[in-house]
Amino acid sequence: MGRAERETVARGKRLQEAARALAGDHERAVGAVRAALEPLHRAAAREALDAIPVTRLQEATGGQLRLGAVERAGFGTVAAVLDAGAYRLRQIPGVGQRTVDQILSAARQLAEAAGETVAVHLDVDRPEPGTTALVSALHVLVQAGPEARRSVDEATALTGRLEPLLADARPAARRSGMLLAGRARRARAREAVAAIGTLLDEAERAGAPERFAQASVDLLRGAAGDLAAWTDFEVRSAEYYALLGEIVTRAPDTAAAQGFLPDDLAERVREQHLDDTHRRVSLRGYQAFGARFALARRRVILGDEMGLGKTVQAIAALAHLAAGGRTHFLVVCPASVLVNWTREVASRSTLRVLPLHGPDRHDAFADWRERGGVAVTTYGLLRHLPAPEADRLGMLVVDEAHAVKNPQTLRARAVGQWAARCEHVLFMTGTPMENRVAEFRNLVRMLDPEVADRLGDGAGPVDPVAFRQAVAPVYLRRNQKDVLTELPSLQHTDEWEEPSAEDERVYRAAVADGNFMAMRRAAYARPEASAKLGRLREIVREAGENGHKVVVFTAFRDVLSTVEDALRTEEPGPRVPYGPVFGPLNGSVPPARRQQVADAFTAVSGPAVLLAQIQVAGIGLNLQAASVVVLCEPQIKPTVEHQAVARAHRMGQVRPVRVHRLLTTGGVDERLVRMLDRKARLFDTYARRSVLAEATPDAVDVLDPDLARQVVEEEQARLGLGDGRPAQPS
Asked: What Pfam families does this protein's entry cite (predicted)?
């Protein structure tokens, strides 16, 4: 082996060193990101644990722990328990070593889960030293671009190929090496040198050495400055987050769960105790924070996006006040959600609930005034109720509060009178108000006139940072994408409505005729008086105002036509924010055309509505553009609903999916839901245990032959109707 071979080996070593240097430069850049992220992540995880009430530890132990003594001792959060440690917890009267071990084990599990799921938010409007360090570190990698990443991958692969070849070619690297090597070793050395030469020729022809050098320069250049890094982040934040996701995957952060409130305000909210004595449901971290916000600030607007559980947060606040001795609470809401409120309060708390509605409303009001509880009434009835004595009302909750944005209306005046006499007032609205300052200011004025004055006159554009700072003392809003860690989550809501008088009349006629299918469609037979249709329009409108697409399913063509007529009455615009309406898709639409309609629905930029017969669109179409699903009535088979929902909640869906099933009380819907719940549980059991059951769902959820007849006969008996004619189930 001569000089040429030694030069080939030397060139191979230089290329290997350049490749290793590039990999090292990249690793240092990535390490800088991890180093900047770690304290931010640690702080965010700590905040998450501060927001988790100690009662959540019961979930980790199957409800076996008794935590009352621990909470009374001042350890109200998981973070407080971890800080206390075993010694301080053992000092609590009635808490033994076994309980301490269980508490700490459960707390560590939650801490580990928080560490895995918490994320760091990069707020360009509020840069801090820690986030600035992270953005600057990311800026180096973003500026180096995907070319640097590809060069690193190429360098890593090249190093892997060169390393064994250079090891075999070591005897050829020096003059005496080949003389001292054995015959087999010399043969391997010659082959290795030849392979190195071929590899070098390929790399040089491809320009690898130059790319490695340039990538190293880019990675070593550093950020141009903090301001430049933040400016670049603002322009292309998606690239920064994508890169951060590659380095370490994190879930939505605690700052988002706290509505990005100022730090000092958020700290005061976190310090607010939240008693769960009268609550029957555990809260997610952001929900507990929302309830604490309402209690700490006393008179606030909870503006969470639809689907985040504003009702549960309100109930948590009511339960806390009840534990403190308050006895009387009032919820004001549209008539369409009154039933939901009474059911939610009854199922999620131990509080007494009384609907102030219907013919017995005056007796119910007298009973409430005497014995207390949570009274639920409508805007229309509120103005006919006498305002309470000062300090008598523990909390006033106003749902869909944007309904009183006009102070000249009778309903707004009534709400204002009640709010003025109550220390704790909670306005709830999922409609974003940031761009409607004049209307928003009217709501705020009922709660805090000084904050309202700081919002200006609403005549011109509003700076978002200034707006958030001004309204922070009274306004908390979180979006699903910011606080829900599931990707995506699936939330089901049964929307119970009281039938209107006209709904009831049509339904009774269908029951008298023994017509099962007419009973199921009766709620839509008189559109101008339909309670279900009114709620459907509210759901579609709110979804549109939040920028979401909606798909509406029903089993019946005539119901589909009714819904279409209701939604197409006006052209899209400020008064109709849900965008264009597509469909309806029914059995007469060819499959190819169905997909075209679905594609057009998906292609719309912004909100839109798709109307579809559930048997048609529930199978075969990809509707993941929709994040809100409305079921106009309960279906006979649970799998029909499941398959329809799966059109939206499937791979490729990046948003949480909310399913609203419209139901009327006291009739066929209520009976069907009870029956179908039993069938759904049976199906779930089989589906978990049997591949065959998953492949053949009809084996467990087919319609019983006598189900329709049974429902008709029970309803005829309940209403005292029918002349003995048989049911018509088909």
From this structure: Helicase_C, HHH_5, SNF2-rel_dom
